[in-house]
Amino acid sequence: MDEYTPIDLMAFQNAGLALLGEQGTAPIGPQQFRGLPFLVGTDPQRCFVAFGDGLQKDPLSIPIDESARSIIVAHRLLASGISAGGPVGEPIADYVFTYQSGDVVRVTIRDRFEITELLSVGMAEPSTGATTGHVHRDPYRATFPHCWRDRWPLQRISLCAFGRKAPQDDNH
User: Fold this and answer.
1) Phi-psi label, residue 169: left if phi above 0, alpha if psi -120 to 50, beta otherwise
2) pTM confidence score
3) What share of the chain is helix, strand, coil (3-state, %, to 5)?
4) How, if at all, do strands 36-40 and 60-67 pair?
5) CA-CA distance, 2 to 126, in Å (whole number)?
6) Which of 93, 106, 153, 166 is most buried, by the most CB atoms less than 10 A from its CB?
7) What is the pLDDT of residues 40-90, one digit of tens each?
8) What is the dihedral of CA 66, 72, 78, 81, to 10 degrees?
9) What is the pLDDT of residues 9-46, one digit of tens each?
10) How far apart are the C-alpha atoms of 78 and 155, rounded to whole Å?
């Protein structure tokens, strides 16, 4: 088995290149992002797994059924409240890893830490102290990878659930 094995997400892909709107285009098909293999869908109408209004709203469970030292997700935030004065570190999503033993690990994905919006012309660069990577202006490499390091790399991970965080209610 290769050191890095991409996960086929074809059954979960629910959005195409049109989702990117003004942010341009993205490569489709088998890709290497920062030297790691990823399987982006080949159908330009359905090549991404996307969460949001009119898209996936409920948590999405993806079977893994493998042991892993780490899981690397190439994800992208299409809009952030930071450019309108919102706070850095706003929770965007939860990634939940469930082991065959029943143990669960929840990882909160926060704006500008584990994920970020692709910068457009005229937007300020992100603070280098607040990012765990860097943003590429090249639309063909406009992903922001997040690497989750497994606490128990010898245990099999049965599934990974991805869920979008609901906007916080200002009254509570």
Assistant:
1) beta
2) 0.76
3) 10, 40, 55
4) unpaired
5) 35
6) 93
7) 999 999 999 998 888 998 899 999 888 988 888 888 888 888 888 999 999
8) 110
9) 999 999 999 998 876 678 899 998 888 899 999 999 99
10) 34
Hey, is 17 helix, strand or coil?
helix
d(CA 76, CA 37): 17
In our burial notation (b when 16+ CB lie closer than 10 A, e otherwise), range 138-165 reads eeeebbbbbebebeeeeeebbebbbbbe
* Domain parsing of the chain, residue ranges: 10-164
Query: How far apart (Å, rounded) are the C-alpha atoms in residues 77 and 71?
Result: 19
Give me the residue label for tokens 């869920």: 163
